């Protein structure tokens, strides 16, 4: 089992028996409506160095070695091979018998080789808000190509949080197929979960 907790925007904490990882923490006050990141984990990973994804100082490291296996896939923040917004890293985590992928601020379709490396993912965290990243249609193409059991949308806005230029999660839900709105910010991922999109609540 791997527990994922959404900390707002694209920031997640992944926890399993082996250890814990925080992904894409944002600078204090940088994302409207989101609280500052103040977490403790064995490891912090950032998809790129923009202020709303690369604030490592928000995570206090435990000093323990993190045995969660991490694979990094180099990708782009835009559809022009990084010419507009630079590079982006897809992080694949394997721990607790679960394979998870965090897409960061991906702005293009992964390559066929990357899609192959992503096969077998139980869960993916994918941006759906558009403008800075892929939008709903592109996000669905990525999810369909990877085929995870669970897809968790991120990097979108609501009435309470997020950048005004982003789309809402509803635009993705209209096309994604089966989805479930969870009551809290966390979800426990197991390899035998039914296939669906999991909408977590920012708390």
Describe this structure in words.
By secondary structure, this protein is mainly β. It has a single domain, classed as Metallo-beta-lactamase, Chain A (4-Layer Sandwich). The chain has three helices and 14 strands. It has helices spanning 112-118, 136-146, 169-176; strands at residues 2-6, 12-16, 19-23, 39-41, 43-45, 59-61, 69-76, 87-95, 98-102, 123-127, 150-154, 179-181, 186-189, 196-199. The strands form three sheets. A seven-stranded mixed sheet has the order 7-8-9-10-11-14-12, covered by helices on one side. It has a five-stranded mixed sheet with strand order 5-3-2-1-13, with no helix packed on it. A two-stranded parallel sheet has the order 4-6. Helix 2 (136-146) packs across helix 3 (169-176). The radius of gyration is 15 Å and the shape is globular. The protein starts with a strand and ends with a strand.
Strand and helix map with partners:
Layout lengths: L1 E5 L5 E5 L2 E5 L15 E3 L1 E3 L13 E3 L7 E8 L10 E9 L2 E5 L9 H7 L4 E5 L8 H11 L3 E5 L14 H8 L2 E3 L4 E4 L6 E4 L4
Parallel strand pairs: 3-5, 4-6, 9-10, 10-11, 11-14, 12-14
Antiparallel strand pairs: 1-2, 1-13, 2-3, 7-8, 8-9
Please tag this protein with its features.
about 200 residues; mainly beta; 7-stranded mixed beta sheet; about 15% helix
